[in-house]
Design a protein that fits this description.
mainly beta; 0% helix
């Protein structure tokens, strides 16, 4: 079976997580990493940042705002890696996400992992706006799995099944939309 994808640079996510995003960036680590630094990202306890805390930054390469939300990674069918779409995991806290395609249903907020995430650990996820490729280089070349139906327009979430993780599809209605694709899948 052919795997269909769309570039993360061609998708704008609708921020559907509760709360208002701050313009105050998280602290950078000694290497200058802001969102994927080892002190606050992929860590066992939330600590400095609260689950659900949101930050927005101007993405200079794509010329738009990106929103990040501090969430918890929960085990899915496939290990959560940089660029994987994740969604609320049924039966967990509202801020717990996984890339388990079986958890896709209407009106679920999308979240994109900035790096590989350890199960039950906390970290920043891209949850709205344009792809933050200037802040997370791994996202500059990432792609989202699709079901071979994505065209320019509103997209929703689907169990992509190849591999078995969250992917994108044409939104059945505006209610089911989680973002906008600026290109068709290939």
């Amino acid at each position: 079976m052919t795997a269909y994808t769309v570039s993360s640079n061609e998708v704008i996510l609708y921020d559907m997580y509760p709360g208002v995003a701050s313009v105050n960036r998280p602290q950078a680590d000694h290497d200058g990493n802001v969102f994927t630094n080892s002190d606050f990202h992929n860590v066992a306890s939330a600590g400095t940042y609260s689950p659900g805390q949101k930050v927005q930054v101007w993405e200079p390469t794509l010329g738009g705002w990106s929103i990040f939300t501090y969430l918890q990674s929960i085990a899915g069918d496939v290990a959560l890696a940089a660029g994987h779409l994740a969604v609320y995991e049924t039966g967990q806290s509202w801020y717990a996400v996984s890339n388990d395609g079986d958890s896709c249903f209407a009106n679920v907020p999308p979240a994109v992992a900035l790096s590989a995430m350890t199960t039950t650990y906390y970290g920043w996820f891209w949850t709205g706006g344009v792809c933050p490729q200037s802040f997370v280089t791994a996202l500059a070349t990432s792609t989202f799995s699709t079901d071979n139906s994505v065209v320019i327009g509103a997209v929703g979430l689907v169990d992509a099944s190849d591999p078995d993780r969250v992917g994108l599809t044409v939104a059945a209605s505006a209610v089911n939309a989680c973002g906008w694709s600026m290109s068709a899948d290939a």
